[in-house]
Amino acid sequence: MHQTMKIHRNKTLAGLGLILLLSAGCAEAIEKDLTDKRATLLLPSNNAVLDTTTLTFAWQPQDDALKYELQVVSPSFDSALVVWADTNVINTSFQLTLTGGRYQWRVRAFNNTSSTPFSDPWGLVIH
């Protein structure tokens, strides 16, 4: 009888362990849906005219985002001749050195299950 109780107790503990493992895995797998949110750009400001070539692109953090995708093109997304950046970053800023010309940039936030749409592009000119 003692052996039967020990086996029953081990099965119960194994079952509880499995439940804890599955519930921990589910908690990590459930992430907020970002599709109805939008990234907010900060710097450089829209239509900025600059004399410097090393720029810091910055945006507001998005709740529940794990990373951000930054895209910088010239002269515009409608007629991109050069893609200067298409990169994923975990921070809310990224430094990039460009040459003189016209540019547009945009950002989107994402996690493991969804992403925001890209922000409306902001333009800038470097002299």
Find the structural class using helix and strand composition. Answer: alpha+beta
Q: Order of strands side by side in the largest beta sheet?
A: 2-8-7-4-5
**Percentage of helical residues?**
10-25%
Please tally the helical runs, counting DSSP H or I stretches of 4 or more residues: 1
**What percent of residues are in strands?**
35-45%
Distance between the termini: 88 Å
Explained architecture:
The chain is of the alpha+beta class. The chain contains one helix and eight strands, in the order αββββββββ. It has one helix at residues 2-29, and strands at residues 41-43, 48-50, 54-59, 67-74, 82-89, 93-97, 101-110, 122-126. Strands 2-8-7-4-5 form a five-stranded mixed sheet, with no helix packed on it. A three-stranded antiparallel sheet has the order 1-3-6, with no helix packed on it. Strand 4 (67-74) and strand 5 (82-89) form a beta hairpin. The longest helix is centred in the N-terminal third of the chain and has 28 residues, at 2-29. Residues 12-25 have low confidence and may be disordered.
